[in-house]
Specification:
Blueprint: H1 2-14, H2 29-38, E1 45-52, E2 55-60, E3 64-67, H3 76-79, E4 88-90, H4 101-111, E5 115-117, H5 119-122, E6 134-136, E7 143-145, E8 148-154, E9 162-168, E10 171-175, E11 191-195, H6 205-215, E12 219-223, H7 227-240, E13 245-247, E14 254-258
Parallel strand pairs: 3-4, 4-5, 5-6, 10-11, 11-12, 12-13
Antiparallel strand pairs: 1-2, 1-14, 2-3, 7-8, 8-9, 9-10
Helix pairs in contact: 6-7
Length: 260
């Protein structure tokens, strides 16, 4: 059975499409988080864990970032971040599947990492968290935070939303929240987290593909969508971007990918 699975995985990689990469131990979140932070990475590699919706943990050899965690990391989960280096926690917008202020406070307490988002969103945290650790981001204005250079981009959604281009050492990372398409041709990202749809009223496989065509990433990680929408994105990208790999990530699994 293992030989068959290995053969299928090899074929996917040769075709430019990987379903999963280096799964972590299934023994629980503690093991996943430990694996995420301890896995050695080369300068051209990134590790990520998909939590659900648009929530991801991302790490390169230089830096680590948490994006749109909502309340998917809370309670006992947070104890596993003690002593781990996290450069920033980023939020795209205020919808409940992306942002929970109490959970953001808990993440700051656990990691000490700056909490970053648009001023109106993160302002309520300033009564609980030191002002220099609550960082307001403005679309089009790049900001250095820890080892990251973060460029917010105005997205399109129901209400205000910002998307992120993140430079972490040699690796460019893009996170599309759950936005519909916005022009991104002036950006380069080796790893792109692209929203495929449900339950977003604005994201879709078609919009995700248009973002990918602008970014030309080595690896596309599908998120914020249904299995059907993910498969539609895979099929579209296979034709339009044969040099890019598409990952449909399982939740709470460590993926390690090489990017150009």
């Amino acid at each position: 059975m293992m030989r068959i699975e290995f053969f299928i995985a090899a074929l996917c990689l040769l075709a430019g499409f990987a379903l999963f990469s280096r799964p972590a131990s299934p023994a629980g979140k503690a093991h996943v988080i430990e694996d995420f932070f301890s896995t050695p990475l080369d300068e051209d590699e990134a590790a990520f864990v998909y939590l659900g919706y648009s929530a991801v943990l991302v790490r390169t050899a230089k830096a680590a970032v948490i994006i749109d965690p909502a309340d998917l990391l809370s309670g006992e989960d947070l104890s596993h971040f003690t002593g781990k280096k996290v450069d920033a926690v980023l939020y795209t917008h205020g919808h409940g599947d992306h942002w929970k202020p109490d959970a953001a406070r808990g993440l700051f307490k656990a990691t000490g990492a700056p909490i970053c988002g648009e001023e109106e969103l993160i302002r309520p945290l300033k009564s609980d968290i030191p002002a220099d650790k609550v960082i307001s981001l403005t679309p089009g204005q790049s900001r250095s935070v820890g080892e990251l250079v973060i460029t917010p981009i105005r997205g399109k959604h129901v209400g205000p939303i910002i998307l992120f281009h993140i430079q972490a050492g040699n690796i460019g990372i893009f996170h599309g929240g759950d936005s519909s398409y916005v022009p991104l041709k002036n950006l380069k990202a080796g790893l792109a987290f692209l929203p495929a749809g449900d339950p977003s009223p604005t994201a879709s496989p078609e919009d995700a593909l248009k973002m990918a065509l602008d970014l030309r990433p080595t690896v596309i990680a599908a998120m914020h969508g249904s299995e059907r929408q993910y498969q539609q994105l895979v099929a579209k990208a296979k034709t339009a971007l044969p040099d890019s790999s598409v990952i449909i990530p399982q939740t709470m699994k460590v993926n390690v990918v090489k990017v150009r």
